[in-house]
Every structure is written in C-alpha cells, then in structure tokens.
Amino acid sequence: MATHHITVPAGFVAAGVAAGIKANGAEDVAIFAAERDVSTAVLTTRNQVVGAPVLWCRQVMPAGRGRARAMVVNSGCSNVCTGRRGLRDAEEMARLTARHLTERGGPAVAPEKILVASTGVIGRPLPMDRVRAGIASVVGRLGRRHDDAALRAIMTTDTREKSAVVQTRVGRKPVTVAGIAKGAGMIAPSLATMISVITTDAAVTPAALHRALRDASAGSFNAVTIDSDTSTSDTMVAMASGEAGGKPLTGRSPGYRKFAEALAEVCGELARAMAADGEGATRLIEVRVRRARTAADAETAAKSVANSPLVKTAVHGRDPNWGRIVMALGKSAATIDPDKLRVRIGDVLVFSRGKGRPFDEAKARAALGADEVVIECDLGLGRGGFTALTCDLSHEYVTINADYHT
Amino acid sequence: MATHHITVPAGFVAAGVAAGIKANGAEDVAIFAAERDVSTAVLTTRNQVVGAPVLWCRQVMPAGRGRARAMVVNSGCSNVCTGRRGLRDAEEMARLTARHLTERGGPAVAPEKILVASTGVIGRPLPMDRVRAGIASVVGRLGRRHDDAALRAIMTTDTREKSAVVQTRVGRKPVTVAGIAKGAGMIAPSLATMISVITTDAAVTPAALHRALRDASAGSFNAVTIDSDTSTSDTMVAMASGEAGGKPLTGRSPGYRKFAEALAEVCGELARAMAADGEGATRLIEVRVRRARTAADAETAAKSVANSPLVKTAVHGRDPNWGRIVMALGKSAATIDPDKLRVRIGDVLVFSRGKGRPFDEAKARAALGADEVVIECDLGLGRGGFTALTCDLSHEYVTINADYHT
Q: At what angle do helices A295-307 and A322-331 cross, to 10 degrees?
C-alpha cells in the first residue's frame, strides 16, 4: 500500500520509474512538479567540489530562491567531476523535463524552471539514453498516487524510506508541509549525497521560503553528521504551491512563524531519520550541548563529540566511557572549563566538577543501548545550545565502505 | 637481546619496571634521567581537558623550556579528570623521583626538575602504593642497559616498539639524537595518549631546543592523525645533555640547522611508526598535499583527507575511489579549484582538470595494497606543502574501540 507524503500538499504531483541507471533494477528517475511555476527555495552543498546538477541549480536560481516548476532527480550516478559533458547532461535533463511537461498540457515550461539533482557514483558520465527514456516515462506517470516510487527513486544506500508530513494553521487556513529525504553517509560508498524535497500548499514568497528553509536546515540537516564527510551533491529544495490560499507570507507576516515551525518540524523529522539510518548504524545518537559560551561554541562542541570515532564506537559497544566525551569536548575549538562541565548519558550524571562521578553502570549501559541515545553536555558557561545528530560506528560501516568496490 | 636507543646519547640513563598498574603484568613505570640538570623542552597536548601530569609539567616549566633532571612516566592509568587528588599524586611522583635520585648520589635533585607523564585509563585515581614501589625500584635499575624495559613501560595499545636514533655532525663534533614514542590511537580504548621522550648529547640552549622540538613536531607528530581525536595527555620531552661538548647551540648558531634536522628526522621516524601502528591499522597512509595556496591550506587539506573515514575505508578495501579524496579536499576550509587539482594514488594519476582520468586500475589497487600508501594531491594554486600521516580504517579499529569495555 502506498503511503502519501510529498503530494499531500495540494498543487503537486510526483512519480518515479526504474530507468536502468541503478544496477539493481530499482527506481532511479523521479520528478516532483507543481502545476505552475511556484515559489521555490534551494540550498546546495558547501563542498567546494560540486556536481553539474548543483551548478545548474545555482545558474538558474543564483540567489537560491525564485519560481520553479519542477525538480528532476536521478540516483545511481551523481554526475560529479564529469567535465563539460556533465554540464551538458544536467542541462539536457532540465530541457527534456520542461519539454515533456509542456507536452503534457498546461502553461509552457521553460528549462530554467526545472531544478536538477543527481546522486550516486562520482566521476562517471550519466547513461543519457536511459535518463532520456526515464524522463519521458516518468512524466507520463505524474500524479498523486506515486509518492513512494518517487521516494525510492532518490535513494541509494538508504535502508529506510524517510518522509514527514506536518499540518498547521497559518491564520485561519490549514497548511500542510511535507518532505522526503535520502542520505545514509554524508557520502555513501562512492555514491553521493543527501537530497531532500519539501512541498507545501502554503502561500509564501520565495524570500520567506528561502529564509525558513535555511533556518530549518541549520537545526536539522546541518546538525547531522554520519561520518564528518560532506558530499559534493547535497541539495534541498522547497516548493510552495500557494493552494492553501491567502496572501503570500513574507518574513514579517504574522503567520510566518507558524509556517517556519512546521517546515522546521518536517526537516527535523527527516534529519533524525537520516541519522538513524546512517551507514552501519544500529542507533541514533543525540548530542545535546547546553549553556555553551555562544551558539557557535555549542555547535562546534556538539559536532566534535558527534564526529569522534571513539565516542561513536563506545556507544556501539555500550561502554559508558565518559573520558572519550570529555576528550572530544576538550579538543574542539569551543571554550570548555572542565570544572564547570556536567556530562550525562541518558539521565545518568557521569561527570561533574572536573571528574567522574560514581554512577549506576547498568543504567548507563541501558541508556547506551536505547534506539535513541542522548548525550548531554552542560558546559556551564553561557546560553548557547545545539543538538547534533549522529549514529554509532559499527563493523557494518567498515564493511559498507571498505568491502564495497567501485 | 636489548636494543639501545634512548641512552645512546651520552649522559642519560633509563629503566622500566612492572609495578602492577597494568593488569597484564607488563612494565608500567619508567624513568629517563640525565646525570645533572640539563637543557630541556616540553610540548603538551592542545586539548583543553588535560591530565594532572600535564598541569605539573606546565607548572614547573611554564614556557615549555628550561632545565630538568628526569622524566617519570607510568602507563595503565592516565591521571586525567581525577581532581585535586590527581594533582597531589602527580606532584608526589615528582617528589619521590627527586628523592630517590638524590639518594642515588650526585647533586641533590629538586622535585621541580622532574617532569611527569601518565598514560592509560581516564578518570581513575593512580594506585599510588604501586606507583611508589615502582619508582623506588626503577631508580635502583637506572643505567644504559634497560632502554627496552623503559620503552615498554610507556606503551599501552601499541603493538610495536617505536624508537629512532640519528647521528649527525654539528661543526666537527659528532652528535646523536635518539627518541622513543608510544601511541596507537590519539586516545586508545579509554586509555590515553601519545608520549615521546627524546635525548641528545648535543649542547643546546633550552630556547633553541624548544624551537627545534616545536618545528620538528609540526611536521611529524602533529602531522599524524589516527582518528582525529586528540588526547588529554600528549607529552613530548627533549633533553640535551651537552656531553658532545662545545658551546651550547642557540637558534642562530651555524650548527643549529644540522641539529634541528637530526631532531626532525628522529621525530619523523617515530611519527611514521606511530601512524603505521594506529589502532587496527594494516598500512600507513601518507597524504602529500603540494602547491596549496598557503602552508596552512596545505595542512588543512591534507588533514581533511587523512581524517576522512571514507578515504580510510577505501584504502583498507584497496578501492581507487578518487571521488572520496576529491570530496575530502572540497569539504575542507582550504581553497580548492577542481580544474587545477591533480590527484595521484601511488604514481597513478587518477584525477586532473576537473575529472577522473582513465587509469590502470590494477596498478592503483597495487599502490593501495602497499605497506605505505601515498596519496598525492597537487592543488596547483601556490607553494604550500604538507604531508599528513594516518592509517587505514579497519574492522579491527571498531573491535578495539567498541568491543573493549572499561
């Protein structure tokens, strides 16, 4: 039975097909489309090496916001480090999608209104014959019943499908925000990338949508670190159809905050699902840093703990080894005073006033064995807070990434 | 048969004994001593959380240089996060060592002339009864025949002994520099730390020795990253007996450069041995970054590649997956221009002008299977260079760090 998510907000259609790009025969081409050009925001990777699709998105939407009709995505090949040919291929994906959407009826679609994302192996050219056939076929299937096929078409090493739908009210109008995401390693076995598509029926200006997306990603996707590696293709797109009605929200509208909260909730759910599905992960780790000197310090400290392979292996082994947590805080660029620091594993206080406390080891081990492990670090220095999301480091991570061959 | 290293330079004695601090009955207390107070330099960890022994070293040698008589080291317990009791214990180790050395004869020794280092589990108090007995016993064995026992006494999860001896000439005088080191994870299974002791018979001022040690460590120990985790106890000490004769070298002496080169060579050998013996390592990885915009950029870029778990697992799996190398360069804060970048695995060119090159895969796999794997990244932007040292990431790393319980 199909679950619905990305087309729940009115004004969107989606579909996914298997075009033979992935070797395993799974879906690998998807289109997410609005019925007309709608308010859109896009965020792309901070890696300095970026794929051709990222360059295309930046070319057609230089400020990261504007109006777009659709997004076309393929998995199985990331079109990264593929030279001029890669740029031509990304542009052709946009042109083909625009042409087929125009032929489908409705207002004519310009290629510049089509965003493109690709995920998969780095350094190989796209098999364009298959991509072309895939795009033609997927446009024919666009509708509100193929959410799942569209979601599967953006997945690579993911073991679980990740979607979220949140409903809220903006003024008196019910508004829906829905999202899907893929990503299991910041970069997976020679595959790349996180991709997320968010749809909403809210009426919202491109600038307000961009701001809400940026703010939401800071506390969600940008808080996830599976392996400290940043992919060359990360792309997040939010499209707002306006079907919920009303005047488009700006950043100053009274309803903006409610809308931004719903968007942040969708991003938060997707980010947690992504961390929990990290390569080789057996559980989610939440590193909550509180009372850091500054917000930036909180993020630095939380990510230092979340990226520490020694912390991640200790969680995997259910070892309440607080020395590694304290080490990871201390090595970070954030200000730390061991005498003011308090560390909890779950709700077990393990460290305060510069040294370890006697604690109930069985209880700490149980907290480390939970599906969601919480490590709380109260720095006692100020008001900065940040929660980083990661997963444990298991044998399976090494198997996935070492035993796999390109 | 014992090998000699740390006491090869004239003017030093050493010994190591098993005092019962380590559970496995191996040597765990060592003393390295000069026959009088000699020119000494000490570098300690940059982690903000530091052990009591590090605080003691900083207290007695605030500028990191001066004159010292000896260094006392224990393994099996790092005396980190142990509160006031830890500080008292570190000081007592210095006092006891000073007293026993004084009783042994020769000029009286002040406790402030004794440096202290401890390595092992974080957060447990030192078993001082055993430490006291160990110090008494080890002073009785000091001589030039117990180098190996002294070296074993500083080891934790190391699988190999790491020592180096280099001979050079300063002016017309033959000079010897010798060193030993331990360290397998930047922090090992709830154990800590890198420790290195360097001796030389050169006559050199504390300031010149400090400068030479700092410069040597920048390109050697500070270039090593096993797991990006920085321990709370890292300590390097260099002592110069002056027995080779001559006026003490300053940074401006004509012989300084030759001496500094010999010291750098010793540190370089020890650092390579440390990287090759990284937890779970099956081979050494040298990441050579050339022609970076600046020297700082070169270090940032080299360490980003050396710390990338995806690069380390790819090397482990002998997978010539250059996409991960390019990704790791791109995510770093160093300036990268993919169009100017050239990447080699061994001597196989795999990437240039923004894309992968056709290459001999068998040859690249062979280069990745060598004991010493070289990844060369020519950024084509300037004159900065840096070589980072690391090891592959194997199942054994996860076993050592997850399956081990404190």
A: 130
Q: Does B391 touch chain A (CB under 8 A)?
A: no
Chain A residue numbers touching B326 (CB-CB < 8 A) = 49, 81, 122, 232
Alpha-carbon torsion (A151, A154, A160, A163), positive or negative: negative
Place of tokens 């020519």: B378
Q: Is B193 a catalytic residue?
A: yes
Give the strand pairing for A235-240 and B65-77: unpaired
Across the interface, which of B47, B308, B331 has its CB nearest the CB of A330?
A: B47
> B252 and chain A: CB distance < 8 Å anywhere?
no
* Cross-chain residue pair A314–B402, CB shorter than 8 Å: yes
* A187 has pLDDT over 50: no
Confidence of residue B109 (pLDDT cuts 50, 70, 90): very high
Q: Residue A286 forms beta bridges with which residues?
A: A374, A389
Structure tokens at B207: 């300031």
Say what the ipTM of the complex is: 0.73
Please report residues of B whose CB lies closer than 8 A to that of A227: 308-310
- B289: which 2 tokens? 């970054």
Domains of chain B: 12-276 (3.60.70.12), 284-403 (3.10.20.340)
Instruction: With CA atoms as reference, report the closest residue to B109 among B98, B100, B93.
Output: B98
User: Looking at residues B200-219, what average pLDDT do you find?
Assistant: 91
Q: At what angle do helices A83-103 and A52-60 cross, to 10 degrees?
A: 60
Are B46 and A331 in contact (CB < 8 Å)?
A: yes
pLDDT tens-digit series, residues B315-368 = 999 999 898 899 889 888 899 999 999 999 999 999 999 888 999 999 999 999
Q: Do B187 and A228 touch (CB under 8 A)?
A: no
pTM of the complete model: 0.77
**Which of A48, A118, A297 to mutate against chain B (most B CBs within 10 Å)?**
A48
Q: Which residue has the tokens 């907000």?
A: A9
Q: Is B258 helix (H, G, I), strand (E, B) or coil?
A: helix
Type of residue numbered B104: R
- Provide, as residue numbers in chain B, all residues whose Cβ is less than 8 Å from the Cβ of A307: 228
